[in-house]
Amino acid sequence: MGAVKTKRMPRAVREQQMLDAAVRTFGQRGYMAASMDEIAELAGVSKPLVYLYLNSKEDLFTACIRREAKALVEAVRAGVRRELPADRQLWEGLRAFFTHTAQNPEGWSVLHLQARTHGEPFASEVTAMREEIVAFVTQLIVVAAREAHRDPDLPEREVAGLAEALVGAAESLAAWANATPGVTARQAAATLMNFAWAGLGNLMESRPWQPPAAATGSATAQ
Amino acid sequence: MGAVKTKRMPRAVREQQMLDAAVRTFGQRGYMAASMDEIAELAGVSKPLVYLYLNSKEDLFTACIRREAKALVEAVRAGVRRELPADRQLWEGLRAFFTHTAQNPEGWSVLHLQARTHGEPFASEVTAMREEIVAFVTQLIVVAAREAHRDPDLPEREVAGLAEALVGAAESLAAWANATPGVTARQAAATLMNFAWAGLGNLMESRPWQPPAAATGSATAQ
User: What are the UniProt keywords, alphabetically (chains A, B) (predicted)?
Assistant: First the structure.
């Protein structure tokens, strides 16, 4: 029955099935260990057909990264109402992010673990996605600073660093939440808001944590 | 002159030179692209000698991960005075962390990017190191909660999530700081303290960021 059905499917649908199988296999086994045989079998098609449609293991992996990155960015965008205050936008964005990574653990593994470390062109595909998310967070921090101050005094570099920290925290939490039974997307998002926004909130009010001026050179590593 | 000098070196010293060359090469080129020829040349020894001492590319890479992980954990430990309050310990730990990653960018690249995604046994080497650092941060958060409350009410899972978020933020910031000219270790540490501790501080005082109860189901991704 599978064979007949498969033959009548349009190319685009079949390609998506191959990508589904590939994301699952790459996400579970890693890029190196994943075999084209396994991917073809999981997709219910022959290996030559996978090569015919997606060309090579490299191109198939690139197609997976591109599809998963696009889906993640679209999920975050769709989750955020841009007319809300900055902290609410961040909350909605985080919830959408953690919901999506929880529902697509293999896709997240492809993006977070696999794609970043097998050289070009894979790494730059993910870098582009990450930069888009960092830009979104950066802009939220800038808006929040503007709302809090008449004369915003967060230097550009500080904002950039805060955005990097927040995105890194979200990446780490998503991997942890997926590996920890019973952690919901909402809990992960609330943890990060607790962690980040209360701190950013203080910062917006010009109440940063104060580094101890006297102790900088002593027992700390230079 | 190099040859004579090399011949008289004790094995341990020569091994360290090979590891220095290997960390540099793996960190800059990535594990797959790095060649044993290049590593041997950079170490100023013959390729057979590298194989004689370190056995294989896999074993050499494992030795690099182990050495760099140990050095990083020791640097953080050495940078922290355990008798200080929790926020000061975190500050000192972060400064030591960012100082070490800034001074050893290739070592950090090996740990953060290369080691995590080439399967076992590499990944578990880094996981062990990361777990040690997460345990240290977790314990600081628990101590801080105990200092802030007579009856600490941060659930264990929330503490675990916060520690994951903080470590993920630090990892992301270290990569960003190394890629951004002029960002010092102190600035990176201060950014993260601003981001994290002010937020954690609020949390300790039972002032978490409040998720909007009413808006949870509407425009957010389910």
Answer: DNA-binding, Transcription, Transcription regulation
